[in-house]
Design a protein that fits this description.
With 327 residues, this protein is of the alpha/beta class. It has helices at 4-17, 23-30, 53-56, 102-107, 157-160, 191-194, 206-211, 217-227, 244-253, 268-278, 298-305, 321-326; strands at 57-66, 75-80, 91-98, 125-132, 144-147, 185-188, 195-197, 236-240, 260-265, 287-292, 313-316. The strands form three sheets. Strands 6-3-4-5-7 form a five-stranded antiparallel beta sheet. Helix 1 crosses helix 8 (217-227) and helix 8 (217-227) crosses helix 9 (244-253). It starts with a helix and ends with a helix.
Length: 327
């Protein structure tokens, strides 16, 4: 992801300036929280956390969602060992807020070789730093941080080129190649570059609830859906799919004051969530059309509304042949 961390900074600043209903309320309407796919780690990504059964279970202070193998249900287990500093650039966090993403769910269905049995899952969270390695210089115990789903060392050729997903010592590690963040505590590699400070004045507020979505979903959709699509101000946009990715694309589109936005979706509760977002101040000057694929020929409806000219940008978020065809 070439600009993922940069785009995350933009969205964090944007969310901190907003005075609106929390996005977490929207998640309740949607019924799911998710993200986009990503690189599985750089070519020289750090070795997997060793799983020492004697040290892993016992009377430890941690609890976590734990992977049991392909096709099996995960378990929430207690009395797990506390994560430890393994590298001098690591930080240990107490997890305060986390999410469930499609990558976590996919791990239960497909053969993801890097995810081994007894892996603690999760890749998106906000946490409080409880311990730092002796080479960590930008983070301190007691700070609250947003943890990036993509781990970045900040120094390798890929990171210097802003290709953080290809970091030689990082990439997608949490909940994948190393233990993740769906639990009480977690180890975060490269703490100086893989975490973002959360200002103390938003601690324990709805704005902090919003910020957890900046671990992955919002900046990923902004980059791969809008920026890579050549988004500009005052465009007409069609978003195919009303799920979490479509909703994230809609939220991010508000940064560019679109002229028109067409939402093409199926589920009524999801479409209601879009109506909720459309009432925000960022869409005051935008004409928003919410089209149900249950009752409308949505493609024809868009063409009719635009005099057969179509729109300036189509963002396909379903990842299915039906969605590709509509786009």
């Amino acid at each position: 992801m070439s600009f993922l961390l940069f785009q995350r900074d933009i969205i964090i600043l944007w969310i901190l300036k907003k005075n609106r209903e929390t996005t977490t309320n929207l998640m309740d309407k949607m019924g799911s929280i998710g993200d986009l796919s990503r690189h599985e780690g750089g070519a020289n990504a750090v070795d997997d956390d060793a799983i020492d059964v004697d040290n892993w279970l016992g009377n430890g202070p941690c609890s976590s969602v734990v992977y049991q193998g392909k096709g099996k249900d995960v378990l929430f287990q207690s009395e797990l060992a506390m994560p430890k500093i393994r590298e001098p650039t690591d930080v240990i966090i107490k997890v305060l807020k986390t999410t469930i993403s499609p990558d976590d769910i996919d791990s239960l269905k497909r053969n993801t070789k890097a995810i081994v049995k007894k892996r603690r899952l999760g890749q998106e969270c906000i946490g409080e730093i409880t311990e730092v390695g002796n080479e960590v210089s930008k983070r301190k115990i007691g700070q609250r941080v947003l943890v990036s789903s993509i781990t970045s060392c900040g120094h390798c050729v890929s990171c210097k080129s802003r290709l953080y997903g290809d970091c030689q010592g990082g990439g997608w590690l949490l909940g994948h190649r190393i233990d993740g963040v769906q639990g009480t505590h977690a180890r975060v590699p490269h703490g100086d570059y893989s975490t973002f400070l959360i200002p103390s004045h938003v601690w324990d507020t709805e704005l902090e609830d919003d910020l957890v979505l900046c671990s992955d979903i919002l900046p990923a959709v902004l980059e791969m859906g809008l920026v890579d699509g050549g988004i500009k101000y005052d465009m007409s946009i069609a978003i195919v799919g009303a799920g979490i990715k479509g909703m994230a694309a809609f939220i991010c589109a508000g940064l560019y004051a679109p002229r028109e936005v067409y939402i093409l979706g199926v589920e009524d509760n999801q479409l209601e969530a879009f109506k909720f977002i459309a009432n925000g101040p960022e869409f005051e000057s935008t004409r928003v059309y919410i089209l149900s694929q249950k009752v409308d020929d949505t493609v024809d409806a868009v063409l009719e509304q635009t005099n057969d000219e179509g729109v300036d940008l189509v963002i396909e978020t379903t990842g299915t042949p039906v969605g590709w065809y509509q786009g």
